[in-house]
Amino acid sequence: MIKKTTIVDIAKTAGVSVSTVSRILNNKPDVAEDTRQRVLQIIEEERFAPHLAWQQLRSGKSRFIALHFPQDFNPLSQGIITNAALRCEQFGFTLNLIVGALNENDLLGIFRSGQADGIILVEILVNDWRVELLRQHTTNFVMIGRCANTHGLSYVDSDISAGVIDAVTHLVGLGHRHIGFITLGRITQEKEYGFTAWARHGYETACRQHSLPSYTCSADLTTESVAAATSKLLDQHPHITALVTPQDASVPGMLKAITAQGLRIPEDISMVGLLDESFAEVVTPPLTALSFSSRELGFTAADLLIARLNDAEASPQQILVRPKLCVRGSTGPVRTTIGAQTHA
Fold first, then answer.
1. In 3-state terms, what secondary structure has residue 257?
2. Domains annotated on the chain, with CATH
3. pLDDT of the residue at 301
4. Do the beta carbons of residue 173 and residue 144 sit within 8 Å?
5. Angstrom distance (rounded) from CA 305 to CA 68
6. Considering only CA atoms, which of 232, 123, 247, 228 is closest in space to residue 183?
7. What contacts 127, CB < 8 A, 6 or more positions away?
8. Cα gap 175→10, rounded to integer Å
9. What is the C-alpha R_g of the chain?
10. pLDDT grade, residue 121 (50/70/90)?
């Protein structure tokens, strides 16, 4: 039977009283520093406290990292969260996930109360109050995503603008000249999702590069809303021969609308989405899609923040991960006719 080490054992080995060990475990200030270090060393050697606990005591840090993933735009990305947590644990930190809405006091309270040494922000707005608040208070944070003003900040983000340009260029190469673009999340000046903004910028840039007309619409975060918006766009512009979306949650609604219109993919209309490879392969026909590694985003964000926690003077790093365009069966040569109507 394995004998459990107790606080009495620690005190006896260190030659101090039980109350002294208790004060050290509770991080009280009224203990001589050499005594504190001797007791902590014995705690470590005897494995009396979890590894994390004595690291906290030694460093005065929580060894916790928070990740705020508000549910305003997209469902939780399991890949990002899991891999950020894995990377944190590899460096002796624990990741705490926060999904609810926060106000300014809530966000600052995470640091003031010692709940976390740093925070990873996800679902970044173009003008994000969280970023500006933490910037003002010089707290340790990084972003998965990016806002408009990134001066002096660290982030890792999908280069979705470049990905959308690749998608449009692929369609142009197949002869398409009328390409619609559908995003999720209503666009307001106060609350615009950064990912959507950079994706739309890529679409508009590609349209200018190839001298194409622009057809954009946005929908709410439901399949029914996406289907209605897609149908409306196709009704208003029946000469559209291809559709692009930068968000995976919009794919089901778009497919529903295309089917309801009596169109075939890719014979009548081509489609490019953003979808995990395993799902893109099982769509009928398999979806030509942009994809990027959630593992890379989660790992890199954790690396950036931990580097800053270990070195307050570490320079900001800004990393863009270009999505990969995987061509499958949902894109093909431009149609020439639909019914009795001719399309360019």
1. helix
2. 7-59 (1.10.260.40), 64-157+294-320 (3.40.50.2300), 160-292+326-342 (3.40.50.2300)
3. 96
4. no
5. 14
6. 247
7. 147, 148, 190, 192
8. 77
9. 26
10. very high
Summarize pLDDT for 154-171 with one digit per residue, the tens.
999 999 999 999 999 999
DSSP character at residue 54: H
How does residue 341 score in pLDDT terms, banded at 50, 70 and 90? Answer: very low
Contact assessment for residue 121 and residue 135, using Cβ atoms and an 8 Å cutoff:
no
pTM: 0.78
Distances, alpha carbon 53 to alpha carbons 10, 62, 91, 153, 340, in Å: 15, 9, 14, 31, 74
pLDDT(95) > 60:
yes
Q: Assess contact for 147 and 127: CB atoms under 8 A.
A: yes
User: Token pair for residue 310?
Assistant: 């270990």
Pairing of the two strands 318-321 and 270-274: unpaired
Reduce the DSSP state of residue 242 to 3 states and report it: strand
- CB-based burial of residue 178 (10 Å sphere; 0-12 exposed, 13-18 middle, 19+ buried)? middle
Pairing of strands 141-144, 118-122: parallel
**How many helices, marked H, and strands, marked E, lie in the chain?**
13, 14
> Residue 49 is inside which H or E element, if any?
none
Q: Which of 143, 127, 120, 138 is nearest to 64 (CA)?
A: 120
Helix (H) / strand (E) containing 270:
strand 270-274
- Residue 114 CB neighbour total at 10 angstroms: 12
Tokens in use for 44? 């470590």
Q: Are 129 and 288 in contact (CB under 8 A)?
A: no
Crossing angle of helices 7-14 and 33-46, in 10° steps, is 130
* Through-space distance between the first and last CA atoms of the chain, rounded to whole angstroms: 82
CB count in 10 Å sphere of residue 107:
22
Q: What is the rounded distance in angstroms from the CA atom of residue 187 to the CA atom of residue 38?
A: 59
Sign of the alpha-carbon torsion through 321, 327, 331, 332: positive
Q: Which residue has the higher pLDDT, 72 or 4?
A: 72
Sheet of 288-291: strands edge to edge? 215-219, 179-184, 242-244, 270-274, 288-291, 324-326
